[in-house]
Amino acid sequence: MTTESLLARRERFLGAGAPLFYSKPLHIVRGEGAYLFDADGKRYIDMYNNVPCVGHANPNVVEAMARQQGTLNVHSRYLHEGIVNFAERLTQLHGPTIESVVFSCSGTEANEVALRMARIATGKRGIVCSDGTYHGNSETVAKLSGLRRGQLPSPDVRSFPFPELYRPVVPNLAEADLVEAYLDRLRDAIVALETNGEGFAALIVCSIFANEGLPDVPQGFMARAAEIVRAAGGLVISDEVQSGYCRTGRWWGYEVTGFTPDIVVTGKPMGNGLPLSATAASKSLVDQFRAKTRYFNTFASSPLQAAVGMAVLDVIERDGLRENSAQVGAALKAALLERKPRCAAIGDVRGQGLFVGVEMVKDGASKVPDPSRAVDMANRLKDRGFLTSNAGVFGNVLKIRPPLVFSHSDAQQFLAAFDATLAEING
Amino acid sequence: MTTESLLARRERFLGAGAPLFYSKPLHIVRGEGAYLFDADGKRYIDMYNNVPCVGHANPNVVEAMARQQGTLNVHSRYLHEGIVNFAERLTQLHGPTIESVVFSCSGTEANEVALRMARIATGKRGIVCSDGTYHGNSETVAKLSGLRRGQLPSPDVRSFPFPELYRPVVPNLAEADLVEAYLDRLRDAIVALETNGEGFAALIVCSIFANEGLPDVPQGFMARAAEIVRAAGGLVISDEVQSGYCRTGRWWGYEVTGFTPDIVVTGKPMGNGLPLSATAASKSLVDQFRAKTRYFNTFASSPLQAAVGMAVLDVIERDGLRENSAQVGAALKAALLERKPRCAAIGDVRGQGLFVGVEMVKDGASKVPDPSRAVDMANRLKDRGFLTSNAGVFGNVLKIRPPLVFSHSDAQQFLAAFDATLAEING
Fold first, then answer.
1. Residue in chain B nearest A292 by alpha carbon
2. Nearest residue of A to residue B67 by CA position?
3. CATH number for domain B3-54+320-426, candidates 3.40.640.10, 3.40.50.1000, 3.90.1150.10, 3.30.420.40
4. pLDDT at A8
C-alpha cells in the first residue's frame, strides 16, 4: 500500500486530525533496539521513543508477555502473586515513604488516581501545576494543560510559571533570588485556591518539567517548593511518566531536581509498550484512596502487567541501562554544548541522561524562540535517518529522548547528521 | 506462598481495600478456555469473565501478541496499516452511520472520549444516564455512577429510572403505557438539563443495562428514547463495554434492545486481556472531536492493539462464538427458568446469550431483594468449582457471564451445581 492511500484510509477510519509526525509521515513497519525501519526497509535511529525503553521488540519482554498471556491474564479480584511482587519491587525503587501502589493502564489514569488520592487525603480540591505542563487527556487531568496558552483555569486549578534559568520570570536576579521569585509565584497560586473556596490539595509537577522544555531549574527550588506545599497542608505529586525509569540517568526525575514526593506517578516506559501505569504513595494515602473509592480497573493489576513490568525492570538492571542513560546522555549533551558557541540558532542545550533538549532561537542574544527551525530540523533529521521531534512551551526545543539502549555509536552518528543539518539550514 | 501471607503482602503493597471476590479469596494461577485453576490445581468453570472472551490463554491471541510485540509496537504518530485495518473492520460490524474510530486503553477512557465527543458536537454539557449505571472510574465518568444510592448528581448529569418490567416505575400498567411512563422520566431529565443552563448533549446507556441487573426492558422503549433524544438535539451513546462482542448472542447489545446509537463505546473483550477500547461514531463526529482536542493516547492505536484486536475477531468468527453464545446462553436461560416455579428465592431469570442474571428475592410474591442469598450462592458455587458473582442495583442478581467458549457441557455441569447449592441453602 502506498503512503498516500494509507493516509487516505487512515483519515477515513480514524478521522481527520489524528496526530502524525513529520511533513511527510513515516510508515514504520519494524523495530529492533534503538532502530526503526520503514516500509522501504530504510533504517532510522530512534531518538524519540521513551516507551520502548529497553529497546523495540526486546526479546525478554516478548517472551514474558507471551508466557504470561499463555498462562493467565485476568483481573485483580483474585489473588495473584505476580502483581504483589511487582508492586513490592516498584516501592523498593523509591525511599521509605513510598509503600503501596495503585496500578492503572495509562498516565492519564494514573494522574486521575493521584489527584483523587490527594483530594481525598486533604479534603480539598485545589491543584497547583506549572503553566506549561501536560499530564493527560481526561477531562479532569486536561484542566492542567494549556494554561500558558490562555486556557481559562478551572476554579480548582491554579498555575505558577515553571522555574527556569533561560528566560527567568524576573530578569537579572542572582539564582538564589530567582528561587525566591518563583516560590512567591507558587505561594500566590496556593493562596488563590485557599481564598476562592477550593482549598489546596496538591502541587503536581513533571519532576524535570519535560513538556515545558526541560528547563534548568534554579538550584534548590523544588526542595523549597515541597516545604511550602507541605506547610500549606498540601501533598507533592511527582509525575514521573516521562522523567522516571532511568530517563535522566537516575531512576527518578525527582532525584535530579532534588525533592521527595508524597505521590509518584509512572507510566510510559513501564511496560515497553504494554499499557501499564502506577500511582505509588504511602500506605496511608493508598488506604484512604481505596476506602473512599473502591477503585477497580479491569485491565490493571493484571498478571500480564506484572510479568511484563518485571521483565522491563530485569532488563534495565541486567543491561545497566541506567548507567548507559547517564553516560551516553552526558556525552551527547556535552557534544551538543560544544556546538552552541558556533551556532547562533542554538539558544541553549539542556537535559539530563538520555533526555536532551536543544532550544532553537532566532539568535542567541534575543532568545526569540524559533519553532519553525526546530520543526524544520526534525524533518531534515528524519530524512537523514534520525527520529526526533519538537517540544517546549514555544515548540522550539528539539527533543532527543531515545530508548535507553541508545549507544555512544548511535550518538556519534546523530552528531554528524546534526552538524550536516545545521550546515544545510545555515546555507 | 500461603493464601494468608499472600493476602497480607497484597494489603501492604496494593493497600487495604483493593477489591477481592469471595469470602475466601481465590488464588488463581492458570487459565485455559473457560477454565481457571487455583494454586492447589483445583479447576473452576469460569462463569464470570467476559474479558477473555475467546478463552483464557487463547493460543491465537498469544501468538498474535508475541508476533507483533516482537516486530513493532509504537505510538500512532507514524503510519501503520494494522490499526487502520482494525478500525475499518470494527466499523463494518455496525450499520453505515458508524464510520470512524478513536482508540484508547480502557472503557473509562473510551467513555471519556464519547462524552467529550458529544459535548463538542452539541456545544452542550448535559448528560442523561440511568440511575443504576456504571461507566468507569475517572472523575468525569464516575459522576454517572451511584445516583440511585443517593450520590448527588453533578449539575451536568441527570438520571432517569432504568427501564424494567420486574419492578416497574409505575405498577400495574400495560407494557405500552409503561414505556410512556419511562419516556416521561427521560424527558424530565432532559428538560432539567435544558432549564438549569447545562443544555442537553447526550443520553448514555449500557444497551442492556447490565449493571442495573439485566432488566427486561419494556418493548420499544429504547427506540422511542433515541427519537426523543435526537428531537431534543442530543446524541445517543451506547456503552457496549459489557454488552458488545457477541455477549448477548448478537454482535451488539443495541440489537437486543432495538435502537441505533450515534456513538458506540467498546472495551473489555476487545483484546482478550490486552488493554484496548474504542469509541466509534460517524466520521463527522470523530473529525469534530479530533479537531477540537488533538486527542493522543500513548498506548492506543498501536500495532499491538491492532494485531491482538484482529486476532480476537478472527477467533470469534472462525469458531462461531456468536452462535455459541446465542445457543448455549438460550439453553442455560431456559433451564434456569424451568427452576423458577420450584424455588421461591428465584424472583426472575433474565438476560440474552451468555449473559444471564438470576434475581434472588426473599420470596417471589414480595420481590424483596435478597443480596445476602446471592452472595452466599456465589460463594457456595465457587466452592463447588463454578465462578459467578452478584450484581444489580440491589446486589441480589447472580451474575453469569462466562467466556464465549463456554459450552453446553459446561452449562450442564453448572446446572447440577446450581441445583445442589439451592437444595443446600433451602436445606
1. B17
2. A62
3. 3.90.1150.10
4. 97
Q: Which helix (H) or strand (E) holds B422?
A: helix B408-426
Given this model, what pLDDT does residue B11 score? 97
DSSP letter (8 states) at residue A353: T
Residue of chain B whose alpha carbon sits nearest to that of A270? B299
Tell me the C-alpha distance between A86 and A91, whole Å: 9
Tell which residue, A356, A115, A369, has the closest CA to residue B137.
A115
Report phi then psi at B236, rounded to 5. -110, 120
**A302-346: per-residue pLDDT in tens?**
999 999 999 999 999 999 999 999 999 999 999 999 999 999 999
pLDDT at B153: 85
Query: What residues in chain B have per-residue pLDDT under 50?
Result: none
Interface contact flag, B31 A73, Cβ < 8 Å = yes
pLDDT score of A151: 79
The ipTM estimated for the assembled molecules is 0.97
Predicted confidence at residue B77, as pLDDT, reads: 97
Closest by CA position to A229, among listed A179, A265, A190? A190
Going along B14-99, which residue ranges are E strands? 28-32, 35-38, 43-46
Sequence ranges of the domains in chain A: 3-54+320-425, 60-318
Distance from CA of B87 to the nearest CA of A (A): 6
Residues in chain A: 427
Q: Can you give the pLDDT at residue A427?
A: 63
CB contact under 8 A, A140 and B140: yes
Per-residue pLDDT tens over the stretch B85-111: 999 999 999 999 999 999 999 999 999
H or E element at residue A203: strand A200-206
Closest by Cβ to B107, choosing from A65, A69, A298: A298
Q: How far apart are alpha carbons A411 and A400 in whole angstroms?
A: 11
Closest partner CB to B62 (pick from A66, A275, A289):
A66
The confidence score (pLDDT) of residue B427 equals 62
CATH of domain B60-318: 3.40.640.10
Note whether B54 and B61 are within 8 A (CB): yes
* Residues B179/B218, Cβ–Cβ less than 8 Å: yes
CB nearest to B17's CB, from A28, A61, A287: A287
The answer on pLDDT for A1 being more than 80 is no
- Superfamily of the domain at A3-54+320-425: Aspartate Aminotransferase, domain 1 (3.90.1150.10)
Distance from CA of A342 to the nearest CA of B (A): 33
Is the separation of the CB atoms in B218 and B175 below 8 Å? yes
Give the pLDDT confidence score for residue A220 in this predicted structure.
98
Closest chain A residue to the Cα of B101, Cα to Cα = A14
